[in-house]
Design brief:
Length: 325
């Protein structure tokens, strides 16, 4: 990072940023890329440039864009989010769910202008939506002349876990956001990829939102290093997540969502609250997060090796056991 070649990304472009944008766009099979300070800003920019005020966006009911982006779609783009619940025991909305959520044409109801998918799905415990289902969702969107945006903050994890090429996972979406600051371990950064014309509009929105970062090559250099050194090792995080899940499953009546990638969701036994478990684990040096009043979330990453994860499993088990009795 200290040795990165830099320019001015607001004026005439930063060479290291341009190299990163070109590389990721190529990996995803898209025409262009645009570097952002955060995934939330990139997601909200994608919504902005592909919708119109007074319309609605269809998303899985537990999507990050709905729950964790400060109502940005409403505040910034003037659009309504339409949560699409997953049916038939599924944890993530399917093509059928999206199709059934589309409103019949009516002068009394808002029209849809965008479909959003999330892969992997944070709220579902890092669940992967496979290419076949993504293709079906795209078919529903195409039949209704709607663009598709993918919140692919953890698409890297889906790629490594399934060995599906990134361009195949991304092919169904007109725009895709990917984060560098999660599993890849960068201090800052995300990217939006798509068609050149869309990204030109996105560049203007990024500027409006305060996302011009001048000598941002120092950050892009971290992302370039991460793609070389940290992408394939995401498999280690997936293996550690499974070890953590196995260590906790069943303790005191707790249920664990079987992890497909690096997120472990723990549903607590009756009478045990997430804040109580989080607080007790913190006292023993393990940081996990409350997801709801009865669910906690743990994420494995490159700074937590197998030994650390084993210790975390012991601490979380002990916290649940003590609180369940």
């Amino acid at each position: 990072m200290a040795e990165a070649e830099v320019g001015d990304d607001v004026l005439d472009g930063d060479p290291t940023v341009r190299r990163l944008e070109s590389l990721v766009a190529t990996l995803l099979g898209k025409e262009a890329g645009l570097f952002f300070p955060s995934g939330t800003m990139a997601n909200q920019t994608a919504v902005w440039v592909q919708t119109a005020p007074g319309t609605e966006v269809l998303l899985d009911a537990n999507a990050h864009i709905i729950h964790w982006e400060m109502a940005g779609a409403a505040a910034l783009s003037g659009v309504q989010v339409r949560p699409v619940p997953a049916g038939d025991g599924r944890t993530v909305a399917s093509a059928l769910d999206f199709e059934q959520a589309l409103r019949p044409a009516s002068p009394h109801a808002p029209i849809a202008t965008l479909v959003c998918v999330e892969n992997t799905h944070n709220g579902a415990g890092g669940k992967i939506t496979p290419v076949g289902e993504l293709v079906s969702i795209r078919a529903v969107a195409d039949a209704n002349r709607l663009p598709v945006h993918m919140d692919g903050a953890r698409l890297w994890n889906a790629h490594v876990a399934t060995r599906t090429p990134l361009h195949e996972l991304a092919a169904v979406a007109h725009t895709v956001m990917l984060s560098f600051s999660k599993g890849l371990g960068c201090p800052v950064g995300a990217i939006l990829v798509g068609e050149e014309a869309t990204l030109r509009r996105a560049h203007m929105v990024r500027k409006r939102l305060g996302g011009g970062m001048r000598q941002s090559g120092i950050l892009a250099a971290a992302a370039l290093h991460a793609l070389d050194a940290h992408l394939e090792r995401l498999a280690d995080d997936h293996a550690n997540a499974k070890r953590l899940a196995d260590a906790i499953a069943g303790v005191g009546g707790a249920r664990v969502v079987a992890p497909e990638t690096n997120i472990v969701m723990i549903d607590l036994p009756d009478g045990v609250t997430s804040t109580a478990v989080v607080d007790r684990a913190r006292l023993d040096g393990v940081l996990i997060a409350p997801w709801s009043t009865t669910r906690v979330r743990a994420v494995t990453h490159l700074d937590a090796d197998a030994a650390s994860v084993a210790r975390a499993g012991d601490v979380i088990r002990s916290a649940i056991e003590r609180l369940a009795h």
